[in-house]
Fold this protein.
Amino acid sequence: MKTTIPPSIKNDFPIFKRKIHGKPLVYLDSASSSQKPRQVIDTIKDYYEKTHANIHRGVYTLSEEATLAYEDAHRKVARFINAKFKEIIFTKNTTESINLLAYSLGLELKKGDEILLTEMEHHSNLVPWQQIAKRVGAAVKFMKVSQEGELVIDNKLFTPNTKIVAVTHISNVMGTINPIKEIIQKARSIGAKVVIDAAQSAPHIPIDVKELDADFLAFSSHKMLGPTGVGVLYGKQEFLEKMTPFLYGGDMIKEVKLEDTTFNDLPWKFEAGTPNIAGGIALGTAIDYLTNIGMHSIDQHEKELLQYAHEQLSKVKGITIYGPRDLKKKAGIIAFNFEDIHPHDVSSILDTEGIAIRGGHHCAMPLMKVLDIQASCRLSLYLYNTKEDIDVLVKALEKVRKVFK
Amino acid sequence: MDMYMEEILEHYKHPRNRGTMADADITFSDSNPLCGDEVDVYLKLDNKKTIAEVKTEAKGCAISQAAASMLTDTLRGKSLEEVRQLKNQFVFDLLQIHLSPIRVKCALLALIAIKKGIYQYLGTTFTDENN
């Protein structure tokens, strides 16, 4: 059976011409960071060769062109998740988007208020809240994760004191797709604001913030074919209007007097200083590329590959796979351990076969504790992966076994 | 596959000086947050100066475990001062493999834990300036 996206898509990604230890690159670490198509790379080069000047400053041609292109990238992101232009803030990455919220929303919290997270959060959606909570005296509570890697939603955790619920859409370790619609509704019923970490979902499945009714949603350009150094924060306009800025400085102001400042309109109120202009524009190109293929097709393709990978890996003796067994609840990420071989040893040996997978705690140390493991291997899929990639991996695992026999 | 030479795997599968020590003079636990490698080291001293016995309990990858095993085999009879002065290269020479910068941390876990333990025992703070 063929997959939805043909293997020839690899031709769009120059990195696949590269050999690693003399072998073709099999890249299975897109959950960490994706590879880039030629179009995105060209956008950055073209921008610096033909258009670069600072934005929102000059009235000359270059500055106007750069401004329009940068603003247009915001519009592309807005369309991509069905938001308004004013609701799209460019940051450095998902981590900065969440820090923006932790500082802007979190510092308003008082003693006795509660922030509700889950045990499966990436450190980036845990540490900012944990640290801000310490400062203001708020409590941090956690939804539990079952041994199958699914969230256990306990109604008792949603209390009148819960002010912020921050939860990952898709687990970056096990690929668990969380029931965020249900969580958003529960948060709504107690008047809490909801922050969705969409770092692992926005690159892979269609997202509609209106339909989800999410208050805030954060993701990174570099996981969705765009460059590093650009992140996105979506926020409902009504909230963003009232919130205090996270970073102060140039470009985020309307009028500055020595004693006070009027802040700029959205989204610029939250984009202080000269931003990553080239990166922002190139994220726009990445979104064009994804939209052209279609998020439904990408989702479908990854589902096919996930099923294939599960079938093939399950046949390998000594493999333990973590996360939901029901693949309908799972995105294209598989955390596994092989025999009792340390994930770093597995990854090192796979590297000699040209295969890039992740080994470690995946920035989710509390989750490792829940699963009672020190670390795991993790493979993650994207639109350029093929069944052959999985076949190469499965074959190479036998080599790993041989080394440690 | 030169990172996983026979000798490394031999030490990994049959680590020397494995275990704990109830009457250790120096104990220290350290970990490598990147991989989750963990090591507990136990040193018994002669005249508060020389290493008489050494044990380690280690969890982690083959490189960190083999390095711990090979290193501890060389420590008996060495003075605290000698061990304190050991360079990272000492461990690399024992392993005799090419390590990527990330795996260097795995290889050095035990050495650094032992040095930190000795520094603590001597009432000083470990710094990496020797290397």
Notes: Chain A has a mean pLDDT of 96. The first strand of chain A starts at residue 19 and ends at 20. Residues 40 and 285 of chain A are 6 Å apart (CA to CA). The longest helix of chain A spans residues 61-80.
